[in-house]
Specification:
Structural class: alpha/beta
CATH architecture of one domain: 3-Layer(aba) Sandwich
Radius of gyration: 19 Å
Helix content: 40-55%
Number of strands: 9
Distance between the termini: 34 Å
Number of helices: 9
Order of helices and strands: HEHEHEEHEHHEEHHHEE
Largest sheet: 7 strands, mixed
CATH superfamily of one domain: Vaccinia Virus protein VP39
CATH class of one domain: Alpha Beta
CATH topology of one domain: Rossmann fold
Shape: globular
């Protein structure tokens, strides 16, 4: 397998695609702000890696407008169908979709920007991917990625036993399942190793709670999606008792304690390609 081809540890199921939609609702403001800071704007030609069901594609297509173009790559054909349908429904005919990984993509010309969210963490050799995308943009072009650091999980307040257990399950899995669970924290260094100047970085966490928050379902669906893969990395799969009504139990625990949930830390990093001279 190519070192630049993703092995998506979350799987390609309908449940995972629904989890991605929940995640998108939670993370939308952070990604929208990040892409704007990175300079994604009207008329740009943008390549997106690992578009999934199109959440970042929709944001990028809105920013570049009808005179721009967003070329979206993913290896999951079902996710690509959903993403394309969503973009068409939103009137974004300038977003196009291709079933491929970055090593297979043959662009007609250089891009103004390459973007991605939560894709490098799934790569066996993220540095090789970064070097590949640097070659795909013209001088002055933007490389912009948002990635988690899943080597740890920030704790909310106060102590919430079930919530903290769910967070520990997620971290334990990623520390075993991917090459660099702390890929977000590594971006500053890795982007320079790929030939870019020191990137502009920002670490952000969603901090949320209350009766109507989506974070309970997002975390519950994340660990339920991962559970069938626990055994492959040496973890005990969750029992039916662990997963039954998990969203409801997380919400009830937080409300009973007036607790706040802190989502995993996500680092956004972007830089512009310098002249070769």
């Amino acid at each position: 397998m190519s070192e630049t081809k993703p092995t998506y540890v979350m799987g390609h199921t309908d449940r995972e695609r629904r989890r991605l939609a929940l995640q998108a609702a939670v993370l939308h403001p952070l990604t929208d702000s990040f892409l704007r800071r990175a300079g994604i704007s009207a008329g740009m030609r943008v390549l997106e890696l690992g578009c999934g069901v199109g959440d970042v594609s929709l944001i990028a297509a809105g920013l570049v407008g009808p005179h721009g173009r967003v070329h979206c790559l993913d290896v999951d054909s079902a996710a690509l169908e959903i993403a394309e349908s969503r973009c068409r429904a939103a009137g974004h005919a300038h977003a196009v979709f291709e079933q491929a990984d970055v090593s297979e993509h043959k662009p007609a010309g250089s891009y103004d920007a390459v973007i991605g969210r939560h894709i490098l963490i799934h790569m066996a050799d993220a540095l090789a991917v970064l070097r590949r995308v640097v070659a795909l943009v013209h001088e002055g072009g933007v490389i912009a990625f948002q990635e988690y650091d899943l080597s740890w999980h920030p704790r909310g307040y106060p102590e919430m036993r079930l919530l903290f257990q769910v967070e520990e399950w997620i971290v334990d899995f990623f520390k075993r399942a991917v090459a660099k669970p702390d890929i977000g924290t590594r971006l500053f260094s890795m982007m320079q190793d790929a030939g870019l100047p020191p990137p502009e970085c920002r670490a952000e966490c969603v901090v949320d709670g209350g009766p109507h928050s989506l974070v309970y379902e997002w975390l519950a669906e994340t660990v339920i999606t991962l559970s069938p893969r626990f055994a492959a990395v040496g973890l005990q799969p969750l029992s039916e008792a662990d997963t039954t009504n998990l969203t409801q139990r997380l919400r009830e625990e937080a409300l009973a304690n007036r607790g706040v949930v802190i989502a995993p830390m996500m680092i956004g990093a972007f830089a512009r390609k310098l002249s070769a001279s």
